[in-house]
Each structure stands twice: as C-alpha cells, then as structure tokens.
Design brief:
alpha+beta, Aminopeptidase, seven-stranded mixed β-sheet, two-stranded antiparallel ribbon, 36% helix, globular
C-alpha cells in the first residue's frame, strides 16, 4: 500500500487506513450499519443539522471494501434507503404548446417540492421523461423547484444537489486550496438539472425563473439542512447546449472540466468536456468561502 491514498476526496496516510482496517476486523460481529454509525461517533462526523453523517461514512467504508483495503461483513438486509428501491411511476403530462411572452402565462408560482408528494411526482415525471439525462432520486442534500402556472401546469424545473468534490476551474476562480475546499464545499450546490420542457416556448422564462430561485435557494437550504449556501455551480455540455440561459441569468463561465466523470477513480473514463458556470449568491461569496 502506498504512503498516501485518496479516498472520498481526502488524502489519507496508509497508517490511518490500517487503523481503520484493524478496527473493522476487531468488530467483525457488527453490521455495516453499526460500523458506519460508530465511525461517525468516533470521528465526530456530524452534519450541520446535528445528525450523524451515516451515508457518507458508509460510502467511505464501502469504497475501502471495494478496493480490497478492508473486509466488511456481508450485508444482512437490503439498504434501508427507501429512495434506492422506489420505482418511479410517471404521470401523464399535458404537452399542448405554451407559447408567447411572460405576460401571456399570467401568474407563475415557484414551489420547493421535496416535501410535497403531489407536486414532487410532477417534478420527477418531468425530468424523467423530458431531460436528456433522465432522473434518479438524488442522494444527500438536495432541493427540487417547480415553476407552475396558475392552472398548475409545469413550465420549468430545477434540481440542486451536492457540488463536485474537485473542479479545477471553479476552485481557481474561488481561490481555494485543498484545505479551504474541504472546509467549505458544503456551502456549494450543483444545479444538476435544469429543464424547460420542449412544449414551452416563452422568451425570457429561464432568466425570470432563475431570478426567483436564486432569491430563496440559500434560505431554503438553511431551513432544510441547517446551513446556508454561498455559491452554485453547473456544467454545460457544449456539444448539446450553448449555455445561453445561464449567460442571460448572469452566471459566470470560469473554464472547462477535464473530461472525466465523478466516478472516474482511475482516470480512464473520457466524457465530453463541459463549460463550468458559477453563480455567487452574495457579493462576498468568494471571501466567505476562503475563510
């Protein structure tokens, strides 16, 4: 084993991982569930809302197991994560044309639908059937926004989740070193999905909708997770899109990705390079992230 190993976005000493391996071996009768929770307690691995970071600890242990650095006990039962096993049932959606300008739409209402099962089903159907990347239930911290007409017709949707652990163009723009990134990453969110369905052709809708989302995103995140946000990022596949909606909404283009996916641990998976856009949620975002 080499002296320095990167796991879960952090560099570990080989001796640290050896201590974890021995600890797991000494508690071979424990379940994977108990191991991850005990690890959270031992390391004080606590989310800002005071809950144990159980899923992060379990992911860390699973990665060590997959790489052969330790041996976890066999799974005793299916994952208790109900979202992992939930089958998405798509709803019928009205795809009759919506055209004109913003005035023709009448009153528009923005809803955060994570805890609204009726509107959340519409949100999930919209992304699953109309977004080119599809939709899977997000893991970890996330917010889901749906923009509806007075008649409850969806005209736009935004999904926000965890930021990329490392992005050279973004980190350079912020001015982050590795320690600052590790300390501040939870104050970033990634706009993982943005959709205006094909049947909606309304000029200015993207920038108008984003202006409403951006005003409440940090507040809603604080209310749900116990900490706010300073910056939002997104990645635009230039082979498909020109990024005009983000440019019109005052996002800042800061560079390109390196053409690797999140799961590319061995640097072998080549994916299209994407334009990196960021949106500060305050005028002091960079300074706050570097504290």
């Amino acid at each position: 084993m080499s002296e320095m190993i990167e796991v879960q976005g952090r560099t570990w000493q080989a001796c640290e991982l050896e201590q974890i391996r021995q600890w797991v071996a000494e508690n071979a009768s424990w379940s994977r569930y108990r191991l991850s929770r005990e690890l959270c307690v031992d390391w004080n691995w606590i989310r800002p809302n005071g809950q144990l970071a159980d899923m992060a600890a379990r992911s860390f242990l699973n990665k060590l197991h997959e790489r052969g650095w330790l041996q976890l006990p066999p799974c005793r039962r299916p994952s208790p994560n109900r979202m992992k096993h939930r089958r998405l049932e798509c709803l019928p959606l009205d795809s009759s044309p919506v055209e004109g300008d913003l005035r023709t739409l009448g009153s528009l209402h923005l809803h955060e639908v994570s805890r609204d099962p009726v509107r959340r089903a519409v949100f999930e159907t919209l992304l699953a059937t109309e977004h080119y990347l599809g939709y899977r239930s997000p893991v970890g911290e996330n917010l889901k926004y749906l923009l509806l007409t007075e008649q409850e017709r969806p005209v736009a949707a935004w999904l926000f989740g965890a930021a990329a652990w490392r992005c050279e163009a973004r980190d350079r723009w912020i001015g982050w070193n590795d320690q600052e990134r590790a300390a501040g990453l939870h104050r970033l969110a990634n706009n993982t999905r943005f959709l205006i369905p094909w049947w909606v052709q309304v000029g200015g809708l993207a920038s108008w909708g984003w202006s409403r989302v951006s005003r409440r995103l940090a507040r809603d995140w604080q209310a749900k997770y116990g900490h706010g946000l300073e910056l939002v990022e997104t990645f635009v596949d230039r082979s498909r899109f020109h990024g005009g909606a983000y440019a019109a909404s005052n996002w800042v283009e800061v560079g390109l990705t390196q053409g690797r996916s999140r799961g590319d641990r061995q640097h072998r998976i080549q994916v299209p390079k994407k334009a990196v856009y960021v949106y500060p949620l305050s005028g002091q975002a960079r300074q706050r992230l570097c504290r």
